[in-house]
């Protein structure tokens, strides 16, 4: 029974002939699979089908456990270098006061500085549902306040009792140092 997690090895190879590649990468030519398997076993290695869709399939003589280990290492390195975008959520109310608004805006700024996208949610209750424009005003105000640091990725959208908007940080927007820091560094140099 063939495994689904990788290339076919040794007895799993179903074709009758194959193009054989040696341990050093040299092409040895067309062989029957039984002959190729015998050559691999004489060297104490495995016969691995590396291009099953070719006509005839391409097989290589190599140490399969070492090959599998190297493939896992490459996959792990690729995952490690992959940028994972985190989505944070901040909830507002349509009748939010100025102090609460500024505090929540500061939290959104902190999330954006860390490189996360932020989902802004306006929660409506009861009679507030009759005035969704109040929630839209809060979202538009927030988008305008954050314009130098973030872009609106998804425009405000009403879903049930909530209104959502997604904002993403602008690359390099937080890299600029304030002018006050430059003045203090010049004083230290003198």
TrEMBL record:
- Quote the InterPro entries the UniProt record gives: T_IF-3_C_sf, T_IF-3_N_sf, Translation_initiation_fac3_CS, Translation_initiation_fac_3, Translation_initiation_fac_3_C, Translation_initiation_fac_3_N
Q: Which residues cross the membrane?
A: none
- What is the name of the protein in this document? Translation initiation factor IF-3
Q: Which PROSITE patterns match?
A: IF3 (PS00938)
GO MF annotation: an example: translation initiation factor activity
At the top level, the lineage of the source is: Bacteria
Stored Gene3D superfamilies: Translation initiation factor 3 (IF-3), C-terminal domain, Translation initiation factor 3 (IF-3), N-terminal domain
Q: Which UniProt keywords apply?
A: Cytoplasm, Initiation factor, Protein biosynthesis
Domain Translation initiation factor 3 N-terminal, by residue range, is 9-78
**Gene coding for it:** infC
Assembly and partners are described as: Monomer.
Q: Indicate the segments forming the Translation initiation factor 3 C-terminal domain, all copies.
A: 85-169
Q: Which family does it belong to?
A: Belongs to the IF-3 family.
Q: What does this protein do?
A: IF-3 binds to the 30S ribosomal subunit and shifts the equilibrium between 70S ribosomes and their 50S and 30S subunits in favor of the free subunits, thus enhancing the availability of 30S subunits on which protein synthesis initiation begins.
Cellular compartment(s): Cytoplasm
